[in-house]
Design a protein that fits this description.
The structure is a homotrimer.
Chain A: H1 2-5, E1 8-10, E2 19-20, E3 30-33, H2 40-43, E4 50-54, E5 68-72, H3 75-90, E6 96-97, E7 100-102, E8 107-108, E9 113-114, E10 118-120, E11 125-126, E12 131-132, E13 137-138, E14 143-144, E15 149-150, E16 155-156, E17 161-162, E18 167-168, E19 173-176, E20 181-183, E21 189-191, E22 197-200, E23 205-206, E24 211-213, E25 219-222, E26 227-228, E27 233-234, E28 239-240, E29 245-246, E30 251-252, E31 257-258, E32 263-264, E33 269-270, E34 275-276, E35 281-282, E36 287-288, E37 297-299, E38 304-305, H4 306-321
Parallel strand pairs in A: 2-3, 3-4, 4-5, 6-9, 7-10, 8-11, 9-12, 10-13, 11-14, 12-15, 13-16, 14-17, 15-18, 16-19, 17-22, 18-23, 19-24, 22-25, 23-26, 24-27, 25-28, 26-29, 27-30, 28-31, 29-32, 30-33, 31-34, 32-35, 33-36, 35-37
Antiparallel strand pairs in A: 1-5, 20-21, 37-38
Amino acid sequence: MAAALGGSVQGNPDETVTSFAKIEHGKKGQLCFLANMKYEHYLYTSKASIMLVAEDFRPRQALPEGLTLVRTPNPYDALAQLLAYVKNKKKQFRRHRGRCRIAFSASLGSRVWVGDYVTIGAKTRIGAQTRICDNVTIGENVRIGNDCIIYPGAVIFADTVIGDRCILHAGCVIGDDGFGNVRQEDGSWKKIEHLGNVVIGNDVEIGSNATIDKAPMESTIIGNGARIDNLCVVAHNAKIGEHVAMAALCGIAGSTEIGDRCILAGQVGVAGHLKVAPDTTLCAQTGVIGDIRKSGYYFGSPALPHRTFLKAYAKFKQSGLE
Amino acid sequence: MAAALGGSVQGNPDETVTSFAKIEHGKKGQLCFLANMKYEHYLYTSKASIMLVAEDFRPRQALPEGLTLVRTPNPYDALAQLLAYVKNKKKQFRRHRGRCRIAFSASLGSRVWVGDYVTIGAKTRIGAQTRICDNVTIGENVRIGNDCIIYPGAVIFADTVIGDRCILHAGCVIGDDGFGNVRQEDGSWKKIEHLGNVVIGNDVEIGSNATIDKAPMESTIIGNGARIDNLCVVAHNAKIGEHVAMAALCGIAGSTEIGDRCILAGQVGVAGHLKVAPDTTLCAQTGVIGDIRKSGYYFGSPALPHRTFLKAYAKFKQSGLE
Amino acid sequence: MAAALGGSVQGNPDETVTSFAKIEHGKKGQLCFLANMKYEHYLYTSKASIMLVAEDFRPRQALPEGLTLVRTPNPYDALAQLLAYVKNKKKQFRRHRGRCRIAFSASLGSRVWVGDYVTIGAKTRIGAQTRICDNVTIGENVRIGNDCIIYPGAVIFADTVIGDRCILHAGCVIGDDGFGNVRQEDGSWKKIEHLGNVVIGNDVEIGSNATIDKAPMESTIIGNGARIDNLCVVAHNAKIGEHVAMAALCGIAGSTEIGDRCILAGQVGVAGHLKVAPDTTLCAQTGVIGDIRKSGYYFGSPALPHRTFLKAYAKFKQSGLE
C-alpha cells in the first residue's frame, strides 16, 4: 500500500487494517491519518494500527507500540486514494434492467445499470458503465456520458447533455425551466418559455436537491471538474467555469459567469448578468452585486475585498460595545 | 409574424428562421432580439436573419445585409410570445395513462396525461388537459385545475387545492407539515400536528425543489399569478399575495403575509407573523424582522430602506479602507 | 375533553365541535384558542363554540353567548394535544404492500405499511408500524426504527441508522456523499469517497428536501428529538445535538458540533469544524465562523452577541440617515 501511495513504511510492513477511523477514535485494526497538526496529540495515544502522516513528520514523543506509520507526500490525498480504492472494489460493473420504462429509440451503452421505477425518454443516449439508480426520471434527447452515476430521485429534463464520469446526487433537478417572466402593465407576469438546455462537462458533481435550470435559448453551462454542493441553484444561462467549487445553498442568478477554479463558500449569492474573475474565493454568505474583475478573497453583502470587510466589521463590532 | 406581434417589417418580409439565439451569437437562419442597448453593437455585425427591435430604434450605423428588422412595441415581450408559440406547437393534448396507480374514487378530466410511476389518491380531482409527469405523488382529496403541468418528482399532499394553468416544477413539495413544535419544560419539543392545507390560485408557478407547507388549522395561500423560484420555503399559514415574484432560496416564515406584486430577490428571509406592504421590493439577501408598512425598496439584514442601507454601507466600506 | 387536557370548563360541558379554526375566523361548531393576548379582542366577538384559554384568564368584557371556555395550564400545548388526538384517530395501523421492490434479505416489522414504487435494499430492517410512503428509495443495510413515517420522495442511502418515532418529510435525502474534495496542483479536484453513514436518534423530524450527508469514515449524527426544517443542509461528520431546532435553509458545515437544545432561526450558516455551546440561539441569517463557547443569543454575519450586534446596527442605520 505504501508503495502505491508513493510513501514509505516506518514500522510493520505486513500490518493489516479492516476499516478507517478519525484520529481521535482509532482502534486496533483501523487506519487513521494526521494532516492537521492541531490533532497531533491524538497520535501518541492512538490504538490504531496504521497512521498516514506527512513525509517530513517528526514525532515529538515516543510512538505507541503497534502503530505503523506510512509516510506520504500528502496524507489527506493519500487517504482519498485509499477510500476510492475501497469504494471501487465494491462497484458492480454489469448490465441490469430493473422495473423501468426505456423508450424504444433510447440507446444505452455496455454494462449500463438501470434501477427500478426509472423512465428514460425517446432518443436519449447513455454511455457505457453508467449507473441510473431507482426512481430517476430522464427525459427525451438527453445525452449522458460514460461512467456516470445518477442517484435516486434525480430528474434530468429533455435535451440535457452530461459528460463522462459525472455524479448527480439524489433529488437534483437538471434542465427544468429558468425563472423567466416579463412584467405586464397591470403588475402580473407573463412566462418566458425556455427552449434551451443544460450542458454539463466531464468529472462534474452536482449535489443533492440542487437545481440547474435550462436557458431560454442557448445553454446553461457547467464546466469540467466543477463541484456543486447540495441545495445550490444555478439559474438559466449561467456559466460555471471549470473546477469551480460551490458549497451548499449558493445561488447563481441568470446569465452570470463564474470564472474557472473559483471557490464559493456556503450560502453565497451572485446576482445576474455578472462576471466573477477566475481563481476568486467568495467567503460564506457573501452577496455579489457587481462584476468582480480582480481575483482574490471577498466577504460581506454587498461583497468587499476580504481585508476591507474584516477591518470595517471590527470597527462595527467595536461600536456595539461602546 | 410581425403582424401577430403588432409590429412592422423593415427588410425582407418573407425571411424565415429555424431557431433562436442570443444577439452575440446569431447566425444565418436565426432570430435574435435587442432590448438592452448595452448590446447594441452586436447588431451591426450580426449574421442573424431576423432581429426584434423596439419601434423607435434608430440604427447608428449601416445594418448588415441580409438582416431583417421587425419593430415591435416591446422586443422582450415579443420574444416571449414567439417562444411560447414554438413551445405550444410541441404540446400534446391527448389522454394518456402510464404505469400509475389512480384511486378508484379519483376523477380525471378530459385529455389528462398521466406518466409512469405516478400515484393519485382517493377523491382527488384533476382538471382537463392537465399533465402529470412521471414519478409524481398526489395524495387524497387533492383538487388540481385545468391546463396545469406537474413536473417529475413533485409531491402534493392531501387536501391541497391548485387552480388552473399552474406549473409545479420538478421535486417541489406542496402541503407537507409545517415546522410546528411546542417547547417542553425539559427543553424537548412536542410536535404540533397540521390538519390544514395549501391553497394555490390560478397561473402560479412553483420552482424546482421548493416547499410550501400546510397550515395547522386553516390554509397556506399562494395568490393568483405568483411566481416562486427554485428552493424557496413558504412556511405554514403564510399568505403570498397575487403576482408576487420570489427568486431562489427565499424563506417566508409562518403566518407572514407578503402583499400583492411584491418582488423578492434571491436568498431573502422574512420572519414570522409579519406583513409586507404590496408593491415592495426586497433586494437580495435582505432579512426582514419587522412589518414593512410602506412599499419601496429595502436592503440589508435587518432590512432598511434601500437608500439608507447603501449610504450606511458606503461609510462602512470607507471605515475598512482607512 | 377538558379533563383530558387537565383543565376546567366554563360554560356548556356538552358542547361539541367538528373542526379547528384560528381565533379571528371561528364559527359555530369550531374550536379556537387564545394564547397570545394580542388577539384577545377577537374572543369577545367570536362565534366559535369552544375556546381554549389560560387558567388564569380574566375576561375584560362579557363573553359571547354560546361560547364555552376551557381553561388549561397552557392553551397552545392543549391545542397541540387536540390536533394530535384528531390526527391519531385517522392513522391506519395495518400491514400493506404496494407495488414495491423489497429485497429478499430485508426484514420488515409487524404492521409496516409500504406504498407504491418504493425500493428497499438488501439486509435493511424496518421496525413495527413504520409507514413508508410512495416513491421512497431505501438502500441496503439501512435500519429504521418503530413508528416512523417516511414521506414520499425521500431517499435513504445504505447503512443509515434511524431511531424510533422519526418523521422524514417529502424529498429529504439522508446519507448521500458529503462534499469532500482534495485540491490538486493544477486547480482541479479529486473526490474523497465517503464510506461512513448517518445516524439519526429517536423522535427526530427532518424537513422536506433537507439533506443530511454521510461522513467519510464515521457517522454524521442527529441527536434525539432534533427538529430540522425544510431545505436545511447538514454536512458530513456534523453532530447535531439533542432537541436542536433548526429552521429552514440553514447550513451546518462539515465536522461542526451544534450543542443540545440550540435554536437556529432561518438561513443560518455555521462554518466547518466548529463547536456551538448548548442552549445557544442563533438569530435569522446569522453566520458563525468561530466557536461559540458561551450560550446566549447571537446575531449577524459574522456572528456577534445579540446586544452588541443590535447596538452596532443602530449606529450603522443612523449613519445612513445623516
